Amino acid sequence: MTVLTRKQDTMSASSKKPKSTGLINLADTAKHIGARLRQIRKAQRITLVQLSKTTGVDIATVSRIETGKMTGTLECHVRLASALGVKITDLYGGIEEARETEGTAYQAPAAHSDVYVHEAGKSSMAILTTDVLKKKLMPVLITIEAGGATNKEEARVGTERFLYMLEGSVEVLVGDRHFSLKKASTLYFDASVTHFIRNTGRSTARILSVVTPPAL
């Protein structure tokens, strides 16, 4: 039976905490706009009922916008801003700043805490970013000892995988097809087809793998 275990992380909390810079997603944008709307409304001591009556926007809609459950339309935003006596840009204030501090995770060298070891196949996978299931790509460093191999994989339909050979030499089996990869070789394929990688050289092989969407 194949066993895939997670390697224990021995680094301190301070050394593995990532810095975040980049883009925020639509859900985060909705929450940001909602929080700004609530902040402005409460500062003026206006109730949800009063704002709803003034704007003609249903109270449930205003409430859902404030809680980030929905973004709302531009027309809705204009009505709300006008009723509160502020510019519509005031509702969006801080979004650009948030885009500089959320979304993209930075990790220092040797700070990869998620390492999965395939004991029988002499291989391991180190996930190269944080909160991978919230992202559109999953970058992984695959390390295979001489004579070793990865476990057979078969992702859901629509999943794609890209491999870049960093060092060593391997054979990649995708369905009935065989591909030999050496340093700087690449391979792009449908990851829903059964596949695995085996080290055909005499030294440790390392491959950069990128999967989209993320699949574990």
What do you see in this structure?
This protein has 216 residues and is an alpha+beta fold. It folds into two domains: 118 residues, Jelly Rolls; 74 residues, lambda repressor-like DNA-binding domains (434 Repressor (Amino-terminal Domain)). Helix content is 26%, strand content 28%. A seven-stranded antiparallel sheet has the order 1-4-5-6-12-7-10, with no helix packed on it. A three-stranded antiparallel sheet has the order 9-8-11, with no helix packed on it. Strands 2-3 form a two-stranded antiparallel sheet. A hairpin with a 2-residue loop joins strand 8 and strand 9. The longest helix has 18 residues. It is elongated, with a radius of gyration of 24 Å.
